[in-house]
Amino acid sequence: MNEPTRRLQDEIDETMAAITPEPLLALIDALVADLETSDATPGLPVGASAPGFTLPAADGSAVTLADRLAEGPVVLSFYRGAWCPVCNIEMRTLQEGLGDITSRGASLVAVSPQAPDDSLSFAERMELGFTVLSDLDQAVAEAYRVRFRLTDELIDQYTEWGLLLPEQNADGSWHLPVPATYVIDNDGTIRARHVEPDYRRRMDPDVILAALDAI
């Protein structure tokens, strides 16, 4: 899985360099700087107990964290939505490495603020073999301390481009989760984490595997 890991950040960097206009880049950098210096989205620390949840899956079923943990460790990934190109790259890379995760007795669960219908379309388009859940009111993102609201400047820019997050998010808000990945042990303890205010940086798959190997 080391090879997909190297490709992941390279592909993200190349994609963002190609599609990000200068005005948006400046706004993103300002948002990242603000998030990095605030206590709004620190994320739960390693060693903390992972908050339990039950969320609707893309196929309409209800998925409970406790049930998954009863079967083995869980890799929990918060992503922004199907509209986010970086999230698309990350989810595709995780799919490539899904066998490495499941061979270690773990399951992979991805959570976004989008409604189940949108999550289903996303999972089908990306041909994802792992569970995709909808955090309908973003209460789970809040519990894991990764939820934030876009700045007014970014809202204006997104609106100008027709990217209306209230139409993308099930709760109709301009809130998003900071991209975050947690590796959770069977007993519900967080053993590793990656909480990144800069949404262009994601947890390397080899780090996920190393954390699972250490459990």
Question: Could you give a quick summary of the protein structure above?
Answer:
The chain is of the alpha/beta class. The protein has helices at about 1-20, 20-35, 65-70, 85-95, 100, 115-125, 140-145, 150-160, 165-170, 205-215, and strands spanning about 55, 60-65, 75-80, 105-110, 130-135, 145-150, 175, 180-185, 190-195.
Q: Can you describe what's shown?
A:
The protein is α/β, with parallel strands linked by helices. It has a single domain, classed as Glutaredoxin (3-Layer(aba) Sandwich). The protein is built from ten helices and nine strands. The strands form three sheets. Strands 5-4-3-8-9 form a five-stranded mixed beta sheet. A two-stranded antiparallel ribbon has the order 1-2. The longest helix has 18 residues, at 2-19. The two termini are 18 Å apart.
